[in-house]
Design goal:
It holds the Pfam family Arginase. Belongs to the arginase family. This is Formimidoylglutamase. Keywords: Histidine metabolism, Hydrolase, Manganese, Metal-binding. The chain is α/β, with parallel strands linked by helices. Strands 1, 2, 3, 4, 5, 6, 7, 8, 9 and 10 form a ten-stranded mixed β-sheet that branches. β6, α7 and β7 form a beta-alpha-beta unit. α10 packs parallel to α11. The N and C termini lie far apart (40 Å).
Length: 347
Amino acid sequence: MQTLIPFTAERCQGFVAQREGETKIGQTLHCYEGKGSLSEHLEQAKANGARFAILGIGEDIGPRANLGRGGAIDGFEAAMAQFCNFQSNQFLDGSHCLVLGQIATDDLQLPEGSSAKTLREHVDKLDERVIDVVSQVMEAGVEPIVIGGGHNNAYGLLMATKKVTGRPVAAVNLDPHSDFRPREGRHSGNGFSYAAASGALGHYHVLGLHELKNSQQTLEQLSAFGGKWHTLQSIWVRREISLEQAVKEIVNDLSSSDLPVALELDLDAIINMPSSASTAAGIPLLDALYYVHQIARKTPTAYLHLAEAAPSCHVAGVEAGRRETGQSISELIYAYIQGRMMQHPLG
């Protein structure tokens, strides 16, 4: 079966609102028509200036397998509707971006009421697809920007990075949850604990961890692994440390690990963001943008993963959810690209 549903030029142009005298990113980025091998297309796109490959994984079996709510399916489409309409100008040339499309998940999605056991078996199958596609992107020398889907996909991304680099990965995750739950079958809450057990995760830091949304067992497992964290309460409530200082400490740790870096962000860290586990006690989007930009600019980042956006979970309905998640994800993508370009300018 086809494991990648291509984002064709025709599909892209369907998102673009053209205006005379303006050039939108959707008019300049590279698309994937699905013809020929994926590896050949990636090599050609890179030769034509593409540095980043945007990939969607539209599924909610991971969050539901974690006994959470669904809805994390349409983040990629919502983001592309906004991102393609950004201006292509002196700050960002759209030709640096390739939009591949989405990993096929329709055959893995399960109806409401499906057992956790069956959902977790399907997450295992999804892991294989993520590893396969993302490995090809990395092997071509293009940086993946992955839009979820559940945070379960962090496991496949970490495994792909280890497969291509031959080294474990240092991960940082802006998330109220550590996603270091017990290995009880694959789901959105244990991608990092499974990666740690497999040897793919060499260092792990959680930023914005909520002090009352992680079980004692999970915290003890994370500590035993050597994981670190700065809590939401220590930065944004008690103001014991500034965000700037926390990020500086994280950058130093990641850099000193001498490992490729995984840049992870769960959208439910952001205040009232429509997501699989949205929160009223979240952080501002601007702080999330700062985090992404700083890590991308100051560490050897291998990829960006934006997980758990769920447009259908917006209190005002799915269309409002698509606008809010789409705009937020697009801003996060730009913060990442700008950080990477500042670290390694073209020329």
